[in-house]
Amino acid sequence: MKYGVMxxxxxxxxxxxxxxxxxxxxxxxGMIEMDRDDQGRVYLKAWTExxxxxxxxKESDEAGMDFMAFKVxxxxxxxxxxxxxxxxxxAVTDLPADELKDCGRRVRFTAPTGHQFELFxxxxxxxxxGINKVNPxxxxxxxxxxxxxxxxxxxxxxxxVPGTTRLFQEVLGFDLGERVITxxxxxxxxxSFLTVGMKAHDVAFIxxxxxxxxxxxxxxxxxxxxxxRAADLISMTxxxxxxxxxxxxxxxxxxxxxxxxxxxxxxxxANGNYHYPDHEPVTWTADQLGKxxxxxxxxxxxxFLTVLS
Length: 309
Hints:
Blueprint: E1 5-15, H1 18-28, E2 32-36, E3 42-45, E4 55-59, E5 64-72, H2 75-87, E6 92-95, E7 106-110, E8 116-120, E9 150-158, H3 161-170, E10 175-181, E11 189-195, E12 203-207, E13 213-220, H4 224-236, E14 241-247, E15 253-259, E16 265-271, E17 282-285, H5 289-293, H6 302-306
Parallel strand pairs: 1-4, 5-8, 9-12, 10-17, 13-16
Antiparallel strand pairs: 1-5, 2-3, 3-4, 6-7, 7-8, 9-13, 10-11, 11-12, 14-15, 15-16
């Protein structure tokens, strides 16, 4: 956080049918609908999140991610980072306050992987859902489905992962927590897991020829038992499943992957590695990618690598 990026702020996900998507993210995953706007966008949050929302759903003819945003510590830091991006040669777009409901001004840019990112400093804070600010209870009653606790990260596919990694490290102050490299002498970076705090990652990139592809949005659960319960709910609702429950070698998370009705992949996971700025990146080589991604099976699931939105 040396340059002032605090955490993932929100992700805007394109969906083919808004009502079906709301049922997926609210009834199944347990997010809470907080608002809608005159563009038809729906704003959701997980129950522990203090800001008003972390997921924005927008109906579209094509599934995928419009943008991912990170919250910075202040408006002054937002100006500083904007100048750093420009000085680095990155084109930026300034978006006015309240273009997203109850969110301050945003600075948008495109990474070499082809994904759009935003930085912002201000958003209405509504507090944890169903929890008093004074003398709070441990958790709120009335949560639905998996009861995810927070939006955690996105995994994105696109070209030039080394260039994108340098941008996030040198301009935005991210650390490289974990990485995947080629097993040859070149040790080319093909997977990058970047963090601004103690988490294993806040955003991750995998080398892919086609730019701007969305692999998944991930949401945190507290325990392995919560992940197993999520798996039961996936079966109870006949939700399309990708892989799991299992654990990763990379990041060491206990995980399950499944699809929303539009074909966007969702993940819920628990546990995982931690990172401090003085830690060297955890390194995996691409010839061990099966074990890195699916630690128990040690075999790559082709669907996991190729189904993108």
